[in-house]
Amino acid sequence: MKNKNLRIVATIVNLLLIVLLIVGHYYAGRYSQVISTYLGHETTKVITSDEEIDSEYYKSDFSSQEEAIEYSEMVTHEIGKESIVLLNNNNSVLPLSNDEVNITVFGQNSVDFVYGGEGASSMDKSKAIPLEEALSSTGFNVNPTLL
Questions:
Q1: Which of 59, 100, 121, 129 has its CA 20 to 30 A from that of 138?
Q2: Which parts of the chain span the membrane according to its record (predicted)?
Q3: Do 6 and 72 lie in a common domain?
């Protein structure tokens, strides 16, 4: 019986300590500024020095924003040239000969072109060239019936 009472008392004391620690941890975190001030601890420290510290972490390779945009457009063009692939060339239709300039484009994306990928990416569509204009500028005659 004595052992049972001792266990009950020990359990109650342990539970009270656990509750006290949880509540104390909560309020210690919430009022850490007040506690630090009361105990005389500094919560912030301002360091001033005469040294000129370079605080720019990511330095640009370009002298202006226009130069960076021009470079990114050039890289995008190169990536497109190197990565666009013809997956199926039945009957050796492509490449077109120089006298074959009349073409027709098919599909929803030839009219409502998708200018980006999926996810949170975005693109400035004001600088994008429409497919018809791009093909016309390279010497093709685009059939306007399906556009």
A1: 121
A2: 6-28
A3: no
The structural domain count of the chain equals 2
Enclosing domain of residue 12: 2-39
Is residue 73 within 8 A of residue 81, CB to CB? The reply is no
Instruction: Please indicate, yes or no, whether the overall pTM of this predicted structure exceeds 0.85.
Output: no
Question: Position of tokens 């409502």?
Answer: 112
Would residue 105 count as lying in a domain?
Answer: yes
Could you read off the pLDDT of 70-114 as tens digits, one per residue?
999 999 889 888 877 666 777 777 777 778 888 888 878 777 777
Contacts of 132 (CB under 8 A, 6+ apart): 105, 142, 147
Q: Is 82 left (phi over 0), alpha (psi -120 to 50) or beta?
A: alpha
**H/E element, 79:** helix 65-83
